[in-house]
Automatic annotation (TrEMBL):
Gene3D superfamilies: 3.40.630.30. Keywords: Transferase. It comes from uncultured Nocardioides sp. Residues 31-172 form the N-acetyltransferase domain. PROSITE patterns: GNAT. InterPro entries: Acyl_CoA_acyltransferase (IPR016181), GNAT_dom (IPR000182). This is Acetyltransferase. One of its GO terms (molecular function) is acyltransferase activity, transferring groups other than amino-acyl groups.
Length: 175
């Protein structure tokens, strides 16, 4: 089976808990769970967080200053959680400079299997459905795996700012 994008769901709790422990406190890009520590990986925590993640995509949801509506997706392979991916519906100035539209992370033990590359391909289809005509992706200088993931998906390097490589992917011309 190849990786799919699914909405966050408690049915993946067991592998999600293992994954959070694997991340071991490192940033879980694209998770929307920046404040979550490995110690708090539990079914109860996930049950509380899933609805909050899901409502972030709803433009009726009021968000704190500086946050934008976002779709949170989970990468799943064979019913197992393998990674996170977020699609931000718009850019703030900070996202334009640094963060971009799409963020992702694959759990450490599942890296190097093509999951991020495939998940980003799927995410571009979702971004197109949201009406985005082009998306910005960024990665730290030296993050070869992320740079390759973006380049494999047609990312065109624009420049580097504050130590991050910035790429655009045109969605309008690639139906
Ligand atoms: C970046 C990341 C998501 C890549 O996930 P992945 O599923 O391992 O990526 P893929 O297997 O699809 O590989 C993508 C490309 O990177 C290459 N790659 C994978 N791991 C690599 C590594 N450690 N060093 C160099 N290249 C690597 C692969 O060979 C592939 O390139 P290719 O198509 O030219 O062969 C993953 O390393 C990760 O979660 N890192 C931490 C979080 C992060 O950096 N997120 C991105 C924020 S900008």
């Amino acid at each position: 089976m190849v990786v799919e994008l699914v909405l966050p769901d408690l049915r993946y709790a067991d592998s999600w808990i293992e994954a959070v422990r694997e991340f071991g406190g490192t940033t879980m890009h694209g998770s929307g769970l920046w404040d979550l520590t490995a110690d708090h990986a539990s079914v109860e925590t996930l049950a509380a967080r899933v609805p909050v993640l899901l409502e972030q995509s709803d433009h009726a949801t009021a968000l704190p200053e500086g946050r934008v509506h976002s779709d949170y997706w989970w990468m799943v392979e064979d019913e197992e959680f393998v990674g996170y991916l977020a699609i931000r519906h718009q850019l703030t100035d900070l996202l334009l400079q640094e963060g971009g539209h799409i963020g992702y992370a694959v759990r450490p033990s599942r890296r190097g299997r093509g999951h991020a590359t495939r998940a980003l391909t799927l995410a571009l289809g979702r971004a197109r459905e949201l009406g985005l005509e082009r998306v910005l992706l960024t990665c730290e200088e030296g993050n070869t795996a992320s740079a390759r993931t973006i380049e494999r998906n047609g990312g065109v390097w624009e420049d580097s700012r504050r130590g991050r490589r910035r790429y655009w992917i045109d969605l309008a011309s690639d139906e």
